[in-house]
Amino acid sequence: MSTHTHTPSRLDKAVDRLMMFDSVVYGDERQRRITLEGCSFGWIVGSYVAMLAGVLAAAAGAVGASIGFFAVSFVTSMSAAWYAKRRRVDFTVLAMRDRSLARRVQAVTWFIVAAWCGALAYYAFTGHPLVALGRWFDADISRSALGGMAMGGLIGGVIGGIVQTVRGERSAAAKEDALEPDDEF
Q1: Distance, CA of 126 to CA of 137 (rounded, Å)
Q2: Of all residues in the chain, what percent carry a pLDDT higher than 70?
Q3: Of all helices (H) and strands (E), which one includes residue 49?
Q4: What is the number of H-type helices and E-type strands within the chain?
Q5: Which helix (H) or strand (E) holds 182?
């Protein structure tokens, strides 16, 4: 066990000021837990809504808006994972405790990403969106660049998803092995 104490960095202090966990607005421990559960629920719903809005925007040919919606989902997810990791909690390891649930969540997420890339690719290769909503939604990006982005996103997403799944399962297995009692002295 390490006796090293963690000295908060400027970033840690800034995050603590932003989060205000010492504030009385969180109430007692039960209220704090429920508030944080509600925030987690809102984060998850918001992430999926942002991704679905990104798919709908891509289907309408609003490329910039669709990228913005996916960026919102990505930034909120990565911020939460970053914050937890700084506090020595690994989301991937926690998720792999229930591997079937983790796989279902990954499948839904990758299905949404594939639909997004598919809508962008359709627009790039046909020159018109899946759902025509008028010139107001048309993108100013070239179709060849958009096609490259869609294909690159899909291929990169598949490769990244495979790598993340393998890393997560290996990490979870290693943590489980570390938690197993050692009968040998």
Answers
A1: 16
A2: 77
A3: helix 29-59
A4: 6, 0
A5: none
